[in-house]
Amino acid sequence: MAVRRSSGILLPVASLPHGTLDCEAFRFIDWLRAAGQAWWQVLPLGPPDFTGSPYSSASAFAGHRGYLADPDAPVTGRDRDAYRARQAFWLDDWMSYAGESALDDQIRFDREWSALRAYARARGVRLLGDLPIFVSRGGADHRQHPELFLRGIVAGVPPDAFSADGQRWGNPLYDWPALRARGYRWWIERFRRQLGLADLVRVDHFRGFVASWAIPAGSKTARRGRWLRGPGYALFRAAERELGRLRLVAEDLGVITPAVDRLRERLGLPGMRVLQFGFAGGTDDPHRVEHHPRRAVVYTGTHDNDTTAAWWRSLDDRTRERSGLPGREPGWEVLELAWASRADLAIAPVQDVLGLGGEARVNHPGRAAGNWRWQLDSAALTAALARRLAVVTRRSGRGR
What we know:
Layout lengths: L5 E5 L12 H12 L4 E3 L35 H10 L1 H11 L2 H22 L3 E6 L8 H5 L4 E9 L9 E8 L1 H6 L3 H11 L4 E4 L7 E6 L9 E4 L3 H11 L4 E3 L7 H10 L3 E4 H6 L15 E4 L8 H7 L2 H7 L6 H11 L4 E5 H5 L28 H13 L5
Parallel strand pairs: 1-2, 1-12, 2-3, 3-6, 6-9, 10-11, 11-12
Antiparallel strand pairs: 4-5, 4-7, 7-8
Helix pairs in contact: 7-8
């Protein structure tokens, strides 16, 4: 999908002042408009797991009841009949898992989300969603369709810069031959659902469509494992035949092989660049701003990174000196670099606009506790900050 030169802000729904789709969500859209931003990026919208992670949701299709501004809003019989007809593929699976009341909750979620999306669209703001590649172990999809998943192995990633033990996510891995035999119907419907909720969707762990790290279910870390081949282009070809061109962004971070790059390029999808990675790498590091391609989304940092202010404080003196940045306002300095990049789309977490430190970090990869808790102060995003960001946005040619 072609994305014109533009920019936006990353703020999970759970990190809104009340963590719901209430007036604060609409106020944030108003602030984005005043700041000249064209995108609001969120994290996955499904019910999070017991740690609060939206990347291990009990459903690949359902919206989280906890995001509702009005969880007791009336629902009619006509509403139920119409929703059942529209969402027939997955709704019974979710209701079998979550109970009969889940139907009304999903109607309320889609109602509130649709109102928010319409409000954003009318103000020139589009929504960038997030699709986790895996589902949760024992969740609705895993429980209702065990024939689509493998046994004895679980998902994760091998040791990397985030963790010497790798990350043992524990999600079930797909039985891709079984999915292929069913025409990839489950995945086609998943794409349909997520693309119906957002204008553009980031696919987390895109490299898993080429190969996933398979860990023995009994292993406590991700050190032991093997690469398990994914479906490659065949899955996306099946989806495009039915849904048309897929409006996706490929999260291509981590252990990326030429085969992953070839798949992304064949699909015409933008990948990701993270400036925090580029400062630590060598002169040929693809995350350095001078190496950014046009078809990409550049981030100051993601939800898995520390805030830019905290990251800057963690650097040694030599790395700071090599960066060429003054370091007086690292969040804004790195943001301006991102906005100046050749990449079509530039995104910064709201924490970087506010200059917040490590206390505002959203997630520590590889750590189970203490994540997904930070929430925005309702008074933090001022008109002055909006004007400042609007100036940077116009100057970089990203204005709406």
